[in-house]
Amino acid sequence: MKNEINLTLTLDENKIPENIQWNATESGMSENEAKAFILAIWDKKTDNTLKMDLWTKEMSIEEMFKFYFQTFMTMADSFQKSTNEDGMADAIRDFAEFFGEKLGVIEPSGKFDK
Q1: Pairing of strands 5-11, 48-55
Q2: Which residue among 21, 77, 85, 87 is the one 20 to 30 A from 28 at the CA level?
Q3: 79-97 pLDDT, tens per residue?
C-alpha cells in the first residue's frame, strides 16, 4: 500500500507563502487550506533532522502562539508513544503549559506562579 501527502504552496514575488494547501490520499480529503506547517524528517543517511517550516502572511501572531503550543503538546504525545518515556513527555507538556500560559493561549493554572 502506498499513501501520499502533498503540499502545494503559492508564493508571492518575494517567495513568501500566500497560500498553503495539503491533501493526504489516506484521509480521503482533497485540498485543505492551511496557514502554517512544520515538517521534520529524520534522514538516516546523515543521521540528522531535516526540517521545513513555513507560514502565510495571514498567520497572526496569536495564531502562531496557538500553533506552537499545540505542536509542543503533540510532540509530547508522539515522544511518549514512540519511546515510552513518560517522565520526559510530561516535562515537554509542562514546558508547553508554561509557554501557553505566558503567551495567553491557555488560562493560568497557578502552576508557574512561583
Answers
A1: unpaired
A2: 77
A3: 999 999 999 999 999 999 9
